[in-house]
Amino acid sequence: MDVPIIELSAVEKSFGPVEVLKGVNLRAYSGKVTALVGDNGAGKSTLVKGLAGVQPFDAGVITFAGEPVALHTPRAAAALGIEVVYQDLALCENLDIVQNMFLGREETSAGTMDEGVMERQASETLQSLSVRTVKSVRQKVSSLSGGQRQTVAIARSVLKNAKVVILDEPTAALGVAQTEQVLNLVRRLADSGVAVIIISHNLVDVFKVADYISVLYLGQMVASLETKDTNSEDVVGYITGIKKFEGTHA
Amino acid sequence: MTSTPATPPPTIGSGHEGSARAQIVDYFRAIRQGEMGALPAIGGFIVLVILFTFLSSSFLTPLNLANLLTQSATLMMLAMALVFVILLGEIDLSAGVTSGVTASIFVVLVHNSHVPWQLSLIVAFGVGIAIGTFIGFFVARVGIPSFVVTLGLFLGFQGLQLLIIGTGGAYRIETPEIAAIMNSNLPILTGWIFFAVAILLALSISLWDRARRSKAGVLNRPIVLMWGRLAAITVAGALFVALMSVDRAASRGTLNGVEIKHDAIEGVPIVVPIAVAILWIGTFVLDRTRYGRHLYAVGGNAEAARRAGIKVAAIRLSAFVVCSGLAVVAGLFDASRIGVVTASSGGQIVLSGVAAAVVGGVSLFGGRGRLIHAAIGALVIAVISNGLGLLGLPAGVNFLVTGGVLILAATIDALSRKRAGGSILR
Q: Which chain B residues are Cβ-neighbours of A105 within 8 angstroms?
């Protein structure tokens, strides 16, 4: 087994007296999709916020490519190449695709924005993800569908050499065809060598796209499995706490 | 997984490909989809000009056109100032009184304290920037809605101005440099030189843009479009400068068959290059710098901007500083045109400034609009009052028509967006 690009060991997080994460272990591998599943309140969002450096963990060890690291700020996470695509996409509807992808990190030359360089890089990133659904990179985001917006948000996250991309419920608001597009995109993202962590409530999607499944139950990682070794029924059992996982965590 | 098709993925366009004809077709498609920008205002302006030309023989004369420009310059400057805060979805109701207060400070310093006018000007701008910082602090850091903060200043500064000027007081502008802004004209040759420099600047920036895009390896639009656009600007500008170069002094009649005239009035009014320069610099900052992009981003979705690492509070604060700073310019324009500063200078103009921005196509919800929109909107409002004034209609009619035009402009914008299926909010 390869070295995981990112590994959490026994991370804990409390909000006052409420222990949300009670010693969670998580691994994600480059080129693989790891699904993070669990019921509402299991601690998925808290785990993601810790990984993004937005709400640092209280205790535990984080190793990145084998090295122990600290994730105390969003900047530290971004510097390592950890990017999060949140559920509410955080795009500016009044700007176009290129402008959104480069927001906050515009390329400049001679003190002014270099639109040509940004346009080329945005096109290349979208093409490397085999995106075929957008007609022009200069379309305003307000004219895009939900699936296309998700595509732009994901492309934005991988624009600058991302190593780990965390997707929070990327298909929650999408129709059937658009869900399919986004799942294909997630797969291509992983195939390009990025470690993808995907949070989803939809087990059909999870089984379609994930290589590994990690199940959170009341702040503990109750199961980490390879998708090919398990089935939907077992995973539902772990999520609801009816079933106990026995065996080595993948 | 689905198997990948054998053909390579088609390249994603950028809207720059295709012939000139295809580009023009695309442009009209975008308009039909609700991206009207300033077009309704430009259309309205043309209709009004044609209408008043037929109704009044003195409307389309060089003298009246020069008047129209000086009448609209204050409103234009104030509307451009407001664009910076309106782009964020904020409002500055105190922009008008800020222009009044700073003009008062300027004139009182020059008059009563005999401070050199240059130094007084610096003080006036300093006060303007301080006012902007004050508003920005309360809006961006304390979190009070800008409507409330600036309404408070709107009320308070009317009192401050009364204290500075004194009840019923009025100070004449006796600084020739300030009086010249609205009342003097460039020598004819200087006007043409200014025009040539502006065209050369526009040309070199267009060419620089194309060179940069080529270097980055992305497509440029067909060059004929660039030449067409520049040619249109050149023709319109040359026509304007030529009109302004005609002696527009009124005839005093004839004496023994010889026409007696006033001294010649000819040349481009000095306010024009100042306003054009501010418009151009502001547009350059908004379109081409990271600061400008971040301003639009905060106006479009502040949360997205924050997550992208943009310092949202700093952007908000800066917008109010720019707005108040440009309001000082508007105050000087007004003082120059009227010739006096009174306790009520600048008190009523701010809502007309907001109206000008909206008529021109700037969205009060933030994130959409350009400086040129505000300038065109101000021209529309100025042409209404100028034209109705020439027809000898009472001032009440002027207010009614202006209000009607504002609602009409907002309706056209909302309907075009609704028809395109987009959100009415943006």
A: 308-309
Query: Please, what sign has the CA dihedral across residues B41, A142, B363, B271?
Result: negative
What's the DSSP call for residue A87?
S
How many helices and strands (H and E) does chain B possess? 16, 4
Per-residue buried b or exposed e for B73-84, using 16+ beta carbons within 10 Å of the residue's own CB: bbbbbbbbbbbb
Alpha-carbon distance B74 to B335, whole Å? 9
Q: Which residues of chain A make contact with B4, given a CB cutoff of 8 A?
A: 130
Tell how far CA B86 is from the center of its chain: 13
Nearest CA distance, B310 vs chain A (angstrom): 6
Domain B37-184+269-419: top CATH class: mainly alpha
B34 with B426: CB under 8 angstroms?
A: no
Encoded tokens for B328: 């000082």
Which of the 8 DSSP states describes residue A41? T
A15 contacts A56 by C-beta, under 8 angstroms: no
Minimum CA–CA partner of B426 in chain A: A94
Which pTM value belongs to this model? 0.89
**Residue A150 region, left (φ>0) first, then alpha (ψ -120 to 50), else beta?**
alpha
- Res. B4 pLDDT band, cuts 50 70 90: very low
CA-based radius of gyration for chain A:
18
Question: DSSP assignment, residue A5?
Answer: S
> How far is Cα of residue B363 from the mean position of the Cα atoms in its chain?
14
For residue A69, which amino acid is it?
A: V
What value does the mean pLDDT take over residues B160-188? Answer: 91
Indicate which of A142, A192, A211, A227 best probes the interface with B, i.e. most B CBs within 10 Å of its own CB: A142
Q: Which helix (H) or strand (E) holds B52?
A: helix B39-55
B268-296 b/e (C-beta count within 10 Å ≥ 16 → b) = bbbbbbbbbebbbebbebbebbbebbbbb
Q: What is the DSSP letter of B137?
A: I
Distance CA B274, CA B332 (A): 12
Residue pair B128/B327 in contact by the 8 Å Cβ criterion: yes
Rounded (5°) CA angle B205-B376-B99: 100
Per-residue pLDDT tens for B321-335? 999 999 999 999 999
What is the three-class DSSP state of A226? Answer: strand
Give the CA count within 13 Å in the CB-facing half-sphere of A183.
23
Question: Which residues from A are below 8 Å from B11, CB to CB?
Answer: 123, 127
Contact B217 A116 (CB under 8 A): yes
> Which of A75, A93, A166 has the highest number of chain B CBs within 10 A, making it the mutation to test binding with B?
A93
Tell me the C-alpha distance between A170 and A102, whole Å: 20
Residue B214 has pLDDT above 60, yes or no: yes
Fold of A6-89+162-240: Rossmann fold (3.40.50)
Contact between B369 and B296 (Cβ < 8 Å): no
Nearest CA in chain A to B368: A94
| Other beta carbons less than 10 A from residue B205's beta carbon | 14
CB contacts of A92 in chain B (<8 Å) are: 296-297, 300-301, 304-305, 367
What residue ranges do the domains of chain A occupy? 6-89+162-240
Residues 91-120 of A with CB under 8 A from B: 91-95, 98-100, 103-106, 108-109, 111-117, 119-120
Distance CA(B226)–CA(B229), nearest Å, equals 5
In whole angstroms, give the CA distance from residue B423 to residue B168. 49
What is the value of ipTM here, to two decimals?
Answer: 0.87
Q: What phi-psi label fits residue A65: left (phi over 0), alpha (psi between -120 and 50 degrees) or beta?
A: left
Instruction: Report the Cα A190 to chain-centroid distance in Å.
Output: 11
What percentage of chain A has pLDDT greater than the value 70?
98
